From TrEMBL:
Belongs to the P2X receptor family. It comes from Plectus sambesii. Signal peptide: none annotated. InterPro entries: P2X_extracellular_dom_sf, P2X_purnocptor, P2X_receptor, P2X_RECEPTOR_CS. Gene3D superfamilies: atp-gated p2x4 ion channel domain. One of its GO terms (molecular function) is extracellularly ATP-gated monoatomic cation channel activity. It comes from the Eukaryota. This is ATP receptor. It is a multi-pass membrane protein. It is found in: Cell membrane. It catalyses: Ca(2+)(in) = Ca(2+)(out). Keywords: Cell membrane, Disulfide bond, Glycoprotein, Ion channel, Ion transport, Ligand-gated ion channel, Membrane, Transmembrane, Transmembrane helix, Transport. Its main location: membrane. The lineage of its organism: Eukaryota, Metazoa, Ecdysozoa, Nematoda, Chromadorea.
Length: 284
């Protein structure tokens, strides 16, 4: 047990609080301050430490074996079952397509973005390759890989054309020095000869995080009518805005005003018609 919170003073009854966990230790304090069997180097005056209740021996967190733990899993396969629902259209779809829903196909196919993009069975080595990950690296310390399933469906066509697209990426990193990869501990407790014992395991693995997103659309006359009406209204406003900008804002506004309007005084109808051509006529 190490750390300043492990030291205690036997003359102070409250220096060791019963039930309090030692932050850098392996158990909880019993409330007793005992003489240390191993004096702290550099602190000869510190000969007492808080007694703790813990499993013994403590965990020996060291990897004694050599080589990747999960190397043989590179050719293992993973069957992915995914369902997506579009409640507005009353449609439900799954990634095991009806057109390939037979046992013979599923027993022999392996997903490939090029040759078999709709097979729901994935080789772990292929997933690592598509994630730009060397499988040997994650086979040693574990890793976290994200699998994105994307549905983009046009329901104006048959539902059979609504098919998933897959993409892969690694979510953790090899660049960190602490808590590399993905691993966890679990224990099994039992009683042997009247003594409570436990076996502590540290497991390494590959964690897959699945993310599903989907969009679906279908033709509707109402949105089309709204969009057409909005477009017509915007075109009318555009004409008014351009006229206002040219006649009142730009530096050459007087020039454009003269060209837009032709002022005539006392001219006959025939003369005005001959002079106006395509210009608008403003009679004073």
């Amino acid at each position: 047990m190490v750390g300043d919170d492990a030291f205690c003073d036997p003359s102070v009854p409250t220096s060791c609080v019963k039930g309090q966990a030692v932050q850098n230790g392996n158990g909880v304090k019993t409330g007793n301050c005992v003489k240390s069997l191993h004096p702290i180097p550099g602190k000869p005056h510190t000969n007492y430490t808080c007694e703790i209740e813990a499993w013994c021996p403590v965990e020996y967190d060291s990897t004694e074996f050599k080589g990747p733990l999960l190397r043989e899993a590179e050719n293992f396969t993973l069957l992915v079952k995914n369902f997506i629902q579009f409640p507005k259209f009353g449609k439900t779809r799954r990634n095991i397509l009806d057109s390939v829903n037979n046992e013979t196909y599923l027993k022999s196919c392996h997903y490939s973005a090029d040759s078999d993009p709709y097979c729901p069975i994935f080789q772990l080595g292929y997933i690592a390759e598509q994630s730009n990950v060397n499988f040997a690296h994650i086979a040693e310390q574990g890793g976290v890989i994200g699998v994105m399933i994307k549905w983009d469906c046009n329901l104006d066509f048959d539902i059979e054309y609504c098919r998933p697209q897959y993409s892969f990426s690694r979510l953790d990193s090899d660049d960190v020095k602490v808590a590399v990869g993905w691993n966890f501990r679990f224990s099994k407790e039992y009683r042997e000869n009247g003594t409570i014992s436990r076996d502590l395991y540290k497991a390494f693995g590959i964690l897959f995080v699945f993310s599903v997103q989907g969009t679906a659309g279908k033709f509707s006359a109402m949105p089309l009518a709204i969009n057409i009406g909005s477009g017509v209204a915007l075109l009318g406003l555009a004409t008014l805005f351009c006229d206002f900008l040219i006649l009142h804002i730009v530096p050459q506004k007087m020039y454009y005003t003269q060209k837009k309007y032709l002022r005539v005084v006392g001219a006959s109808s025939a003369e005005r018609s001959a002079e106006s051509t395509d210009e608008q006529v403003l009679v004073e």
